[in-house]
Specification:
With 255 residues, the chain is mainly alpha-helical. The chain folds into 2 domains: 134 residues, no CATH class; 78 residues, no CATH class. Helices cover 70% and strands 4% of the residues. The protein contains 9 helices and 2 strands. The protein has a two-stranded antiparallel ribbon. A hairpin with a 2-residue loop joins strand 1 and strand 2. Helix 1 packs antiparallel against helix 5, helix 2 packs parallel to helix 5 and helix 6 packs antiparallel against helix 7. The protein is flat and about 65 Å long. The two termini are 42 Å apart.
């Protein structure tokens, strides 16, 4: 995690795309993951990974997905063993039974979440948060709404950076972090307090900074940076709009 959040600076073709173009693409992949048949999930996931390969970001994308994989595994396991209405039993462990219907439902649900996770991570890896903020404002979005989106994008990186700084400071004072699981859990106690307090102070300071700059005045704003929107991106957004229509038509046809 860097000071700019999830963003990984590169000079790839995807980094040069307009933030709203990439945001619409991520939304299209999200919709396609839930509207298209499960057989399309592998193709959607492969498309995201190919995009990451073309930007040199596949390794970082997979490393950042490890936390989400625990959630996916839990979804598959819970559905496989506790799916209501399953009749085709594959394995019985006392009262707990593995069903084919539950396993299929878990794999489909986990696959859909994986596609969404990878698409959103790739979007964050290739989009600078400041550019996203300005692009939304240039498109007529409220400055408050754009700031909420920006804060949500930067929240996890900020918390991780603050937690790492607190842990380094605590270790410099002799706090032992390694060892057993119990020792690791005890090490969380001196971390939670400073992290919570530091987060509240950060929110307070950012609020004062925004008000000092007239954020809530309602007057027209001037931007210190403008995000380029070349004709190629505008054409891509029209293609994405047509792709959304086609996606809805296909979803209604197959159902």
């Amino acid at each position: 995690m860097t000071a700019t959040g999830y963003f990984r600076p590169r000079s790839s073709w995807l980094h040069r795309r307009h933030p709203t173009t990439k945001l619409l693409t991520a939304f299209w992949l999200l919709a396609a993951a839930f509207l298209l048949p499960p057989s399309a999930l592998l193709a959607l996931l492969a498309a995201v990974w190919l995009g990451a390969v073309s930007c040199g970001l596949l390794g970082g994308l997979l490393r950042s997905s490890r936390v989400g994989l625990y959630l996916l595994v839990s979804i598959v396991v819970v559905n496989a063993f506790f799916f209501p209405g399953g009749h085709d039993f594959l394995l019985a462990l006392g009262p707990i039974r593995l069903t084919r219907e539950g396993l299929e439902a878990g794999l489909v649900g986990g696959g859909r979440i994986l596609v969404v996770l990878e698409a959103l991570l790739l979007f964050l890896f290739t989009t600078l948060a400041d550019d996203l903020l300005e692009a939304l404002v240039q498109r007529g979005a409220s400055a408050r709404l754009a700031f909420v989106v920006l804060s949500a994008v930067q929240m996890v990186p900020r918390l991780q950076a603050k937690a790492a700084a607190i842990l380094d400071a605590q270790q410099a004072r002799g706090l032992a972090i390694g060892g057993s699981i119990g020792g690791r859990l005890r090490a969380l106690v001196p971390l939670v307090g400073p992290l919570l307090l530091g987060t509240l102070i950060d929110v307070r300071e950012r609020t004062f900074a925004l008000e000092a700059r007239g954020f809530g005045s309602g007057l027209p704003r001037t931007a210190y940076r403008l995000v380029a929107d070349p004709p190629a991106d505008r054409a891509l957004r029209w293609l994405l709009a047509a792709a959304f229509v086609g996606l809805i038509v296909v979803a209604l046809t197959i159902r």
